[in-house]
Amino acid sequence: MSEICKCAMAEAEVLKKDGIDTDLLEPTLKEYSAVKGSLITILQHAQDIYGYLPVELLNYIALRTGIKAAKVLGVATFYAQFRLEPIGKYLIMVCQGTACHVNGSEAVQQALEEELGIRDGQTTSDGLFSIKSVACLGCCSLSPVMMINGEAYGTLTPDKARGIIADIRAKEAQNK
Amino acid sequence: MRLVIGKGSCGIAAGADKVSDAALEYISSRSLNIEVGVTGCIGMCYLEPIVDIFKDNGEKTTYVKVTPEAVKEIIDCETAGVACEKYLIPAEDKSRLESQTRIALRNCGIINPDDINDYIARGGYKAIEKCVKELKPEQVIDIIKVSGLAGRGGAGFPTWFKWNAARSAQGVKKYTICNADEGDPGAFMDRAVIEGDPNSVIEGMLIAAYAMGSDEGIVYVRAEYPLAIVRLTNAINQAKEKGFLGKNIFGSDFSFDIRIKAGAGAFVCGEETALIASLEGERGMPRLKPPFPAQKGYWQKPSNINNVETYANVAWIIANGGEKFAAMGTPNSKGTKVFALTGKIKNGGLVEIPMGAKIRDVIYGVGGGIKEDKKFKAVQMGGPSGGCIPAELIDTLIDYKTLAATGAIMGSGGMVVMDETTCMVDMARFFLDFTCKESCGKCIHCRVGTKRMLEILTRITEGNGKDGDIELLEDLANQIKSSALCGLGQTAPNPVLTTIKYFRNEYEDHIYNHKCTAHQCQALVTYSVEADKCKGCTLCAKNCPADAISGSVKEPHIIDPAKCIKCGKCRTVCRFGAVKVD
């Protein structure tokens, strides 16, 4: 760790208190920090590891790569893929693509928001669910569609969506 | 015997993985001699999951809407030597598939995308071999010129011209880039091609690189397409092992390699200069052209950017000749085009048809007509950059120029069908909401103008439209079109302009009569019970979340408009069709 500057070490300490171990990012930094144009790739790897990109981590990446912190934040906030807040155990992506819209996806999203008591982009207080509306999941013929942790649920109605949430809740309660 | 399961993203979403697990378990539990394989999307999404059975003599039987239970029945029937009638593909669906002309999709749903040998067995990598061994780069460009192939990403720019510009550009280092950042909501052609036949894209890029004198390729894939990334990575690795990628391809001095870069979710990155900025790790914001990417692109080097479908056509053209491709289509649009057919259509999915077909042929032919046989109202082509083509223009030819004349565009191939229950003002609002969110913010007219247009459209759909709003929308639209730097901004107002052009009466109904004839805009509809149809079953009153319905058993019920929240629940639950919406 000899080449890491003091500021970066200090940032790493802060992150450790939040449970973010910067050592895990070391292989990515080793591979990409000297390759120009790799900022997006580094951020993608970091999000894969930690689930989200806290501002302190962005600072840390800036210090380690020599890219200005403002630019790192600028790129992280430009692209829809990057999250600066942690997400729930179940990430519900509700498709709001054209085909889903025509087939009633707004009512589905509304039902989910009511059921969970959160709005688009938020996470429930128990840390279980996050809702995110997305442009198109590419399953247009099954519209309206939502995807929960990578699994697609098609031809939804508001009631069917509520039922799926109830099933997950029941499963979680059982595991407790 | 071989059992092949369609595993595109849509097939998996419909349950293909579960079918495949069930088949494997059943086969091993009975120790049957059946090989289980995988293929990509055949395009008939409404019939997924789809299973093909290949007998040892090569005879194929297709089964549709296969469940984990059904696959066992199918295996039982097939091993007994009979077809399983219940799940056989209906004859009309089969003929719909056979009526298409498949070039870009020639291997999709037929070969195993994870096995390069399948691609080679169907003539794969023969076209690049021919180029390297027999043709000079100029001759390759000439063949593409004769074919009339134009960019399938939306703009329809002649492909040979781009290649030639990159070839003529000065410099030793040149990049061949594939744009797989398919962001149009309602379009999934590129995803299906990469998931179903990744090698056709690699071969197309190889040929382009040979023609231009490029040695490095990059595929910019949308991060929302994880399966496409996996299959493409796999295909690239296999192509490297076989020596189709790497140094001295086919023993020549031509060398080429491809890497993948995952996008991070920004619609504007489909624009080529924004895509380049994103490849360089920057915010994906477009810049002024010229210089064009062919002169100064990625890292300021000459770069050629084509769409996935464009590349997928290239190897076929080299193998079959430019004339054969040019023989299909119209004088200004050659070859075939893949469309993603979705919305209120019976048979949604992917179709590939020759240019010059009528919109009617697609919707009522391959598409099978409108869901529940409702009335066709319009089709949105070209996504948020395109426009709505109304029912009276259903006989419009699918051709770059003819479509542009309607105010819509060919676009990348999204076709979203709408029926009488779709409100066109709401549709325009939907698209503006999308472009407003996706505007990169560089040009003021696009950044602020789309926001203002969205506000106006929202207030119209909420019943607060004002006299002069339509004219204000048109004025703003024209300003954005003329002052935005890139394609996103220049085309963002198209959905609004085309809906005003063809459905002005709907805008006027919303603003002046406070009516939404499609009954989509909640603020503008009223629910009431038709006394003569109501049997007094009380079901609506029991289900009303706002306690707005009153009435005694066996007596007609009444909805209190002051309490009604217009959720439509009463109408959904009524078994006598007594709840009327105006």
Describe this structure in words.
Chain A has 8 helices and 4 strands, in the order H-H-H-H-H-E-H-H-E-E-E-H. Chain A has 2 domains: 73 residues; 86 residues, Glutaredoxin. In chain A, helix 1 packs antiparallel against helix 4 and helix 4 packs across helix 5. In chain A, 36% of the residues are buried. With 176 residues, chain A is α+β, with helices and mostly antiparallel strands. Chain B has 582 residues and is of the alpha/beta class. Chain B has 5 domains: 91 residues, 3-Layer(aba) Sandwich (Glutaredoxin); 211 residues, NADH-ubiquinone oxidoreductase 51kDa subunit (Rossmann fold), CATH 3.40.50; 90 residues, Ubiquitin-like (UB roll), CATH 3.10.20.600; 89 residues, de novo design (two linked rop proteins) (Up-down Bundle), CATH 1.20.1440; 56 residues, Alpha-Beta Plaits (2-Layer Sandwich). In chain B, the strands form 6 sheets. A 5-stranded mixed sheet of chain B has the order 12-11-15-13-14. In chain B, strand 3 and strand 4 form a beta hairpin. In chain B, helix 6 packs parallel to helix 10 and helix 7 runs antiparallel to helix 8. Chain B is globular and about 85 Å long. The N and C termini of chain B lie far apart (58 Å). The interface between A and B is large, with 36 and 51 residues.
Give the largest chain-chain interface (CB within 8 Å).
A-B, 36 and 51 residues
**Spans of chain B of 5+ residues with little confidence (pLDDT < 50)?**
none
Mean model confidence by pLDDT of chain A:
91
* Total tally of structural domains of chain B: 5
Q: How are the strands of the biggest sheet of chain B laid out side by side?
A: 12-11-15-13-14
CATH architecture of the largest domain in chain B: 3-Layer(aba) Sandwich
Gyration radius of chain A, rounded: 19 Å
Please write the CATH class name of the largest domain in chain A: Alpha Beta
Q: Which of globular, elongated, flat, extended, rod-shaped describes the shape of chain A? A: elongated
Oligomer: heterodimer
Structural class of chain B: alpha/beta
The major beta sheet of chain B can be summarized as: 5 strands, mixed
Q: Quickly give the structural class of chain A.
A: alpha+beta
Quantity of strands of chain B, as a count: 19
